[in-house]
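Incident review: delayed structure delivery

Summary: a single-chain prediction request sat in the queue longer than the usual turnaround. Root cause was a stuck worker, restarted by the on-call engineer. No data loss occurred. The affected request and its eventual output are reproduced below so the record is complete for anyone auditing the incident later.

Affected input:
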Amino acid sequence: SKHQTSFSDLEIKDEERNETVKKERKKLNIKLFSGWLPIMENTEYERILVTRGDIKLQNEKIDVLGIRKLFSDIHIIETDDGKYDKLEDIKKLYLDDEIIVIGNRIDCEIRYGNLLGLKTIHIKHGKYEKLIPVDRFEIATHSIKIEDLPALYKWL
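Output delivered after worker restart:
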């Protein structure tokens, strides 16, 4: 029949798909912060990722970075306000002193964590590192430059 597919055809299709995925990953051109992986792997805490953006793209980033296995739960939110709502939901499941909100945006993760009365750690890095706090809710419990990541251990 003309709809019959051989194993070699499937292998070729799989190979083409793998090449496409590799090209897409190269386009993303992202990598983990130096020193981040040992911290994530060597803490006994349950880790929950709350990230904002296009669901497909965020999932691709998570897979390219190879970090999916590091989190017990991953929430991809489409708006910054959705992050607040998700953190509020998470807060209901744990004691306040069991939650640490870590982020690089004082106007988002740090603000929301502080508004919810949680411990916050600001990672100063990237396009948001020079943001100036507009009020006390944008001042993290702790602040750290990306190159000083190993110092995070003392706050975890």
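Verification: Confidence is low (pLDDT under 50) at residues 1-10.
Action items: add queue-age alerting; document worker restart procedure.
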